[in-house]
Design goal:
Helix 3 (about 80-95) links the parallel strand 3 and strand 4 (about 100). The chain has two domains: about 15-125, Rossmann fold; about 160-210. By secondary structure, it is of the alpha/beta class. The termini are far apart. Helix 5 packs antiparallel against helix 6 (about 175-185) and helix 6 (about 175-185) crosses helix 7 (about 190-195). It has a five-stranded mixed beta sheet, sandwiched between helices. The chain is elongated and about 80 Å long. The protein contains eight helices and five strands. It is about 45% helix and about 10% strand. This is DNA invertase Pin-like site-specific DNA recombinase. Keywords: DNA integration, DNA recombination, DNA-binding. Belongs to the site-specific recombinase resolvase family. InterPro entries: Homeodomain-like_sf, Recombinase_CS, Resolv_N, Resolvase-like_N_sf, Resolvase_HTH_dom, SSR_resolvase.
Length: about 210
């Protein structure tokens, strides 16, 4: 569906807002897109929208002036819930500031008034609904896998066969934990984890443990 929202008259500057939820995520994709869109200033933040304190958004709102347009890469960079997004959008409108979304189904310019407000509300609601559906499908998929007896999460570092092989090799005093770890392509720590009796072994394996 390609629904056009009312487009505000832009008389001022484009100001960008980039956000990721954790320090492990990279802002560069958003920064590049916002720069290419013509933003003269970009504010960024690394914080979950579930937290009330959003310094990047607060700084952007303080910087924006009537006639300016706030630009985000995608709607979920502005807020995670329909309520939050609409509160921010209403605040922008009250100040005479437009909103532009660069990517996703909701890409375009929005003015949260009249027809534009109606479509913006519906689209924000659809975006939240889509997140909920994805989350429910993920939960259902995990439960179905458990019901089938599938092991979830990371696979074990050593299979039962490798553990047994390691124990057999360790019966030979010429074999060390390091040499067996190299043979099985695992770390010494992994050997000790899966063969815990080594902590009491008095032979070469024990010597390596205390080395």
């Amino acid at each position: 569906m390609n629904t056009k929202a009312a487009t505000p008259t832009q008389t001022g500057a484009l100001v960008g807002l980039a956000r990721v939820s954790t320090d492990d995520q990279d802002l560069q994709l958003q920064l590049d897109a916002l720069t290419a869109a013509g933003c003269i200033r970009i504010f960024d933040e690394k914080v979950s929208t579930r937290k009330k304190d959003r310094p990047g958004l607060a700084a952007a709102l303080d910087y924006l002036r009537p006639g300016d347009t706030l630009v985000v890469w995608k709607l979920d960079r502005l807020g995670r819930s329909t309520k939050d997004v609409l509160i921010i959008a209403e605040d922008l409108h009250d100040q005479g500031i437009g909103l532009k979304i660069l990517t996703g189904r909701l890409a375009g310019n929005y003015s949260p008034t009249g027809e534009g407000k109606f479509f913006f509300t519906m689209m924000a609601a659809f975006a939240e609904l889509e997140r909920d559906i994805i989350r429910e499908r993920t939960i259902a998929g995990v439960q179905a896998a458990r019901d089938r007896g599938q092991r979830l999460g990371r696979p074990p570092a050593m299979t039962p066969e490798q553990v047994e092989h390691a124990r057999t090799l360790l019966t030979n005093p010429k074999n060390t934990v390091s040499s067996i770890a190299r043979l099985l392509n695992v770390s010494r720590a992994t050997i000790y984890k899966y063969v815990p009796e080594l902590t009491q072994a008095p032979a070469a394996a024990a010597e390596e443990l205390t080395a």
